[in-house]
Structure formats: structure tokens, C-alpha cells
Please model this.
Amino acid sequence: MGIGIEEVRNSESTRRWFSSLLDLWGPSAVRPGLVETLARFCTVVEKTPDEIIDECLRATTGGDTFVLRTRARKQFMDQIDQFENQTASRDEANVVRSFFIHNGIAMNPSILV
Amino acid sequence: MEFKSVVGWRRSIRFFDPWRGVEREKVQCILEAIYRAPRVLEVDFVRVLVVERDRLSPEKMQALKTPTTTAQLDMAPVYVFFYADVSMLESALNGANFRELIRLGVLNPSHGWNERFVADTATPYLRAVVDDPDRVPLRPPSAGEEAGPMVSRETLRLARTAIGIAQEYALLAAFDQGLAAQLSGVSVNAARAILGIPDTWIPSSPMLLGYHGESREAGGQRPREPFEEDFFELRYPHPFYREPAVVQRLTAAEMIQAPAPFSWRMNEVRGLARKFGLPE
Model:
């Protein structure tokens, strides 16, 4: 199952990611290729960006706060590691990690030395 | 370093130089400082275990990591684990620690201490703490593991206080020697298994130790709430008057430093993230 670039670009979680990147780093952070990389990851896991985030964050009863689902996060962290191995690119994997982080799902990989 | 300067330069450092180990004598100096830290009720609670990162197998390293502390565990060359042995409260019930301090002239009749007070009041107080019916598990149950033994809530509070004091001595001793440090998170269950920790030891955040991988300023001194919201005199909420001349003197002594954010901080963070292959 392929996930369309436009679907990825227009999803709420992608817009939230870009908005947060802009706030923190300025316009240069929203560089070409981010959506394409995320779309490739979405295709691998067969989920849209919003579905990925929804799996990691469960809304509380009131609906205004979220609880992190650590098992789901761990599963996606492993899939990002696999994605990094397949693409042989830390940069591409970090684009995906950035998407998670700026949607409120904290994670960090091992350092490269 | 001068004490005020040590306090001023302490930060929670999150980027360490991963290639530079810590000299053993500096580690020992930290342990010697902890050894001299105040003890809660004269009980020998604190236990500290030092581990060099590079002596852990990749599997053990992986097990210690949490999703948000992976990078700093990779970077810091030394981990200092803090525990409190709650069984030491039971050991103190014979009052030997108090008697020793009476013999040494530390606890004196001038302050109400004598052998009878130890026997009739001080040690029964310790017994009451140990036996208090308000009990909690030493550690909560987790996946595949039963809860730890039950102890009184007050025992746990005293033990955690002892760890907190030890951690603060350790942090200041580290920065006094030009080192960088941070109290961080690890998987406590993994640490217990890897380090062979006894059942009666309660864990706390280990101190990651190394040399600065980021600037000593680390973006500037962390902001605090207004002084007057935290410090009072005579009666709450009457604020403690903050004398500007004292602030000026402490600024000159580097206890009070330029606050975050520094204009160049985000460039530093981005540069460090790229250097270590971390996300932005």
C-alpha cells in the first residue's frame, strides 16, 4: 500500500510538525524532501501520518490531553531503526524521528561517533 | 573552584564528550564528597555504584536505555548509580550510631542527648518509623516482576531524602573538578539486574558523568521563578527581602550568571545534533 505524497503533506500531524519546525528553527528547517521521506516511512508501516500519531497518543476522557502509549512508541522506534538500515541513512531516519518528536512523542537514537 | 562559582556553573549537561573518559581520582573525589554528606537520622542509607560505560556490553547498554535518554547514556563515559539501603534503618535500631556520636561529643547534653534519651526516645522513634502501619511497596510491580518488599512510607521518605542529599554533593563535586554531570533516567529494573542490586535498595536517578560536549554555559543559567515567590521570612507569604548589593556580589562571584536563552544557543544545539547524528 502506497501513501500519497499529498495525503502526507496535508495531514494534520505533518502540518503540526512543520509548524513546530518553523517555530524552533526558522524557515530553513522545512527543507525539500521531508514529506517524501515521511511518505516512504508511511508506506513501509502502511499507515498515514495521523494514524501513526493516533496509535502513539491516546486521548484522555476529556479529550484535551493525551497519554503516551509506550508500547506503540517502542514498536515505531524499532521500525525507524529498520528504516534507517534499509535506507542506510541516519538523516532520513532522523527526518522520521523529527516528525514523531514534533508531534509530542519523545525519542532519541544512539549517537553516531 | 570557589563554592559560589561551582553552584553558578552547575547545569544539567545533556551533551558529553563521548571520547574523553573521567580520571579515576576525580571519580573517587566525588565519592569522598558523598561519604561526607549529611546523613538522615544518622542512618547509613546511601549506596553508590560506579560503572564505566565502555565496560558494559552492547546488550546491557541497550537494556539500560529509555526512549528519551539514549543519547546521553551513549555520550557519558561514567554512570554513578545512587541507592538507599532501607534495611539500614533496621540496623540502626540498636542506637549504636547515636551512642558513637555521644562518645565523640557530637550529640551532647547541651542539646538534650544522653544514653537514656537514646534508649528511651531516639531508638523507639526509629522503631516507630520502621513499624509504621502506613506501608508501601519498595518498588511498584512492573511487567513480569512482582512488587518489592513492603516498607513504611516514612522509611521510604527518609531514604529518598538521603539519596537527594548524596546526589547534590555528587553534582557539586563533579562541577568543582571541571566535569559535566546530569541526573538522568535509566531502566531501573534493567539496572537492578545488571548491577546485582539487593532487594532492599531503592533506586534513584543515576548521575551521568563526563566532560562537557556542549559549552559550559549550556545556553545560560536556567530561569527561576521570582525569588520572592519561593523565599519568605517571619510568616508566609511575607517575602524574604532580596538585597540588590548581595545579588551584585554573587554575580561577581559567578554564582548568579547570565540567564538562558543565549542568542547562539539554538545554533549550538543544531550543530551538536548534527555532530552526533541526532534528530532536529
Chain A touches chain B at residues 21, 24-25, 29, 70, 73-74, 77, 90, 94-95, 97-98, 101, 106-113 (CB under 8 Å). The longest strand of chain A covers residues 57-59. The helical segments of chain A are 5-10, 12-25, 34-45, 49-56, 70-87, 90-101.
